[in-house]
Amino acid sequence: MTDTHDQIAGLLLAAGGGRRLGGRPKALLTHRGRPLVEYAVGVLRAGGCGPVHVVLGARADEVRERAGLDGCVVVENPDWAEGMGSSLRVGLESLEGAGVPAAVVSLVDQPGIGGAAVARVLGGYRDRNSLVSAAYDGVRGHPVLFGSAHWAGIAASATGDRGARAYLKAHEDAITLVECGDVAEPYDIDTEADLGHLE
Prior knowledge:
Helices cover about 25% and strands about 25% of the residues.
């Protein structure tokens, strides 16, 4: 089987509890009339990802009820409160059996990053050893594409809120940066003040 782009998975990390938002899970914030998690899945699909895996955590049952996640592989991270690292591990684990050569990882709280940025990062894929990252004025951000050859190493180093940061720092020379500053804004929805970014 040849590696083609339509087999590259999207991996959406949407487990956080929104501690600085008064405990409102970010997945359930409303953006353009729908839960943010549903919007973020649409972005991965619009960007060209094949299967989409979604990691839920805080109030997962409510998220499943309210968001249209049809066609997604939804996995729950029981340890979501430990931070993004555990969600990344759970997500990569769910991809293990999916037979995909790579995954584009995105975060639910970055609605300023749309399909165009995902498509650019996907365009940097070469093979299972690929590491591709969106950059904003040259600074590495999301989304990030991890070829499957890196998954075990990333999972082993993903702790707390660090996610893949330590792994990427150690493999900086191997990362292809794709400038996305002209098509996306990498702000996070972290605090009450950030809610103004939602539409």
